[in-house]
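Input chain follows. Return structure tokens only.
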Amino acid sequence: MKTLRALAQYPLFYAGLLLLGLMCLGWCFLAWTVRPFMSPDKARVLGRSGISGGFRLYFAFTSWLGLTRFELDELDALNGQPSLILAANHPTFLDAVFLISRLKNAGCIMKSDVVDNPFLGAGARLAGFIRNDSPRNMVRQSIGDLRQGSHLLVFPEGTRTIDRPVNDFKSGFALIAKGAQVTVQTVFIENSSPFLTKGWPIHHKPPSFPMVYRVRLGQRFMVGDDAKLFTRDLQRYFEQELAKAELALNVPPHHSELQVHD
């Protein structure tokens, strides 16, 4: 019986991925239909709540099937808080999806060719997600989004993790936080499965189920005067938190721009 159940999980999993794709296409069609008739503020609220609710429903379904298990409760404490940047590590392709599933007002930076797509980008445009085109325009739009009370989700690595525990951080998020005068809330993602990590093709099945994803909140920081120094220090903080060894014992003293925000 256990063997039959294990064999059934793989077709169920890929049927679930197909369902997710159909849900996204359906939402994009709805977004494309209603956006011309809504103000930007109302569109953003509808777009973000719709995306968050849809993803949350989908992951509840995959968890019910025994395919996934998510430990995301710590994210719920962020809903209703003032605008901030959520800086997370990026082990898998699904990170943004399950983080947004628990955040009611999450902004997101996306590739400009996706946002500009007449149909596939309709949901992103309804939600007011930010186009990652020129750095200057991206920073300007991100600051504007934060000033409207958003929680902006960023991955300082810029891409999925290749060199564990984290890739080198980019400093763009620190410039955004400094310009908007908001704090940076650190978010740590831990995963039990290599599925959709960097280089893992979507057709390559996961080695086992359930795939477990755990999210925990770290410290919250204000960016100091030097955004690049802040970025280096934050990367070191992530390395210390994510590495199995206690790396903090081996970090030499240095001047730090990290300022813990209570």
